[in-house]
């Protein structure tokens, strides 16, 4: 064990490429670090180190070279990793709950309000979809702020093309009232953004739209979907739990400013 400690203390930390660091001791790699910039501009760090000392050396080098604020995500039950990042000066900013939703055995679903039509993923027109997304994002920014969204829900850069195959929408008479972002791969799906325009909330649109998405996933052979929800978003947790969702884990976001 002492030799492992010694190797880590002698490690040479090198920035080998943009956003990438390596820890090398005695010609052996004993750790690596990465900094990635999300579409909303936030920089997230990740470190894979064979020993705690190597972790400390890598995070020290990365924090010294990168502009702040800097973020990272850790498993909510991984107390050792959390302590390492806190030792480096990071503080817990918030918790996200991982929810698992069965695509079957849902409670009775209330249909959407009169005048609202549910369109499955891939059926939306990009223009109205982009307009609805921009309006909803502006409402979120003006309220809790987009930074309160789950880390895995990146903000769509202005002007970037949108992929209608990833969005199911609730269409009103003259605009899209709500949307769900869903990415399906093989036998699992990730539910991203579930949002309704502020002046159309509390009418059952979000519940009907999400239930319709789950039913479509089931018809496609997918039995389970997952989603991350900020622990402060009580309405979203109630929506998911009302459709059979259950907590399956958590993640902590830490930040240093």
Description:
With about 260 residues, the chain is α+β, with helices and mostly antiparallel strands. The protein has two domains: about 1-95, 3-Layer(aba) Sandwich (Aminopeptidase), CATH 3.40.630; about 100-250, Aminopeptidase. It is about 30% helix and about 35% strand. The chain is built from six helices and twelve strands. The chain has helices spanning about 1-10, 50-65, 80-85, 125-140, 205-220, 235-240, and strands at about 10-15, 20-25, 30-35, 45-50, 70-75, 90-100, 115-120, 165-170, 175-185, 190-195, 225-230, 245-255. Helix 2 (about 50-65) links the parallel strand 4 and strand 5 (about 70-75). The longest helix has 17 residues, at about 125-140.
Chart the SSEs and their pairings.
Elements: H1 2-9, E1 12-17, E2 20-25, E3 28-37, E4 43-49, H2 52-65, E5 70-75, H3 79-87, E6 91-102, E7 117-119, H4 126-142, E8 167-171, E9 176-185, E10 188-196, H5 205-219, E11 224-230, H6 234-242, E12 246-256
Question: What keyword list fits this structure?
Answer:
single chain, 257 residues, alpha+beta, Aminopeptidase, 2 domains, twelve-stranded mixed sheet, 28% helix
What percentage of the residues does DSSP assign to strands (E)? 35-45%
The neighbouring-strand order within the major sheet is 1-2-3-4-5-12-6-11-10-9-8-7
Q: Figure out the total of helices.
A: 6
Could you report the average pLDDT, rounded to the nearest whole number? 90
Derived structural class: alpha+beta
H/E series: HEEEEHEHEEHEEEHEHE
